[in-house]
Amino acid sequence: GENVEQHPSTLSVQEGDSAVIKCTYSDSASNYFPWYKQELGKRPQLIIDIRSNVGEKKDQRIAVTLNKTAKHFSLHITETQPEDSAVYFCAAIDGGSYIPTFGRGTSLIVHP
Amino acid sequence: DSGVTQTPKHLITATGQRVTLRCSPRSGDLSVYWYQQSLDQGLQFLIQYYNGEERAKGNILERFSAQQFPDLHSELNLSSLELGDSALYFCASSARQDTSTDTQYFGPGTRLTVL
Fold this sequence. Notes:
Radius of gyration of chain B: 13 Å
Order of helices and strands of chain B: EEEEEEEEEEE
Largest sheet of chain B: 7 strands, mixed
Structural class of chain A: mainly beta
Shape of chain A: globular
Number of helices of chain B: 0
Number of strands of chain B: 11
Number of helices of chain A: 0
Oligomer: heterodimer
Order of helices and strands of chain A: EEEEEEEEEEE
Largest interface: A-B, 23 and 23 residues
Structural class of chain B: mainly beta
Radius of gyration of chain A: 13 Å
Strand content of chain A: over 45%
């Protein structure tokens, strides 16, 4: 089955800095890669996603890049703000089995 | 608010017991997904139902079962509970059946504590 590795597990930055979270996946059949933000005690919320036919996608301060050859994808957050502090999860979804596999999460802490 | 509702919010029970978690999807959504989130295992996909039929199965234990009813709400049944089943259980819904094209909307979760 699919295996998703996410790094780092904790990321501490100063407000205004950029943050990068990386995920690698093992199954070349995975073709959809969403990113979720989960604030403490709350539900995961989709923040951005990318499909395997696209290399990069941006939405304001958030961007995701995908390297299918190397089987890795990354979340980039620019001009971080304290409200960006949360746990971020990546996921890879197998287009054949439809089973989503999640990374273990990255706790992002943005210091004012 | 995602439009997905889950009840109860909290559940405390003893080992060996059986519980039922309930989920109502967003209006118009046909797929329901169940996830387990624990500190040591992270977020794990359990099972997906689409319009009443099982669509995909993940790491769901045999002690666990689910179903989706004609009105599209879903129930997750957990039996012979063990301490390790203590976790946050999320339900999510999406419009169609393809997890590689549909956005999933998560409910607020049910926190299960097994004592």
